[in-house]
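Justification of resources, computational component.

The compute hours requested in this renewal are based largely on the per-chain cost of generating structure records like the one below. Each record pairs the submitted sequence with a full structure-token output. That output is archived, and it is also reused by downstream analysis tasks.
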Amino acid sequence: MVWTDERIEELKVLWAEGLTTGEIGKRLGVSKNAVVGKAHRLGLKGRPSPIKKAKQPRQAAAPVKEPEPKMKTLVDLSANTCRWPIGDPREPGFHFCGAPAIPGKPYCATHAAVAYVGAGSNNKQQPQQPRDDDAAESAPAAVKP
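The structure output for this chain reads:
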């Protein structure tokens, strides 16, 4: 493809009108990359990307932030709130869970599951079988006739 003076002038006009490189390429019968390369070599003034312009309205809308939950201090707790401590009491930001507690318990369901070990858990010790030495000591002595 040869860039004639007429095609270069048409490129400059279309470029100044703000058409996309793809649209300019279609009108001139060349690829958009050929348009970009020639515009660069001619030193045509750069312009904002039409793609970025299309995305800006979405970015302009401020993202909706959910309000951060208030950190519960000791004063904020009641008999019906979870008293599970979160963090180090010596550090700023130390607080308590504050979620609704299980009735009769100081913790919410999540923290009660951590705090209380159920009877059916693996921590239950199995009764140990007596060792042979222990069995001999605890067995009644055989009475000889």
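Residues 134-139 have pLDDT under 50 and may be disordered. The first strand starts at residue 85 and ends at 86.
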